[in-house]
Amino acid sequence: MTAPDRDRRRVLFTPDGPALIQGPVELVLPDGKTICSDRFMVAICLCKRSRNYPLCDTSHRKRRRGDS
Ligand code: FES
Question: Which domain of life is it from (predicted)?
Answer without folding.
Answer: Bacteria
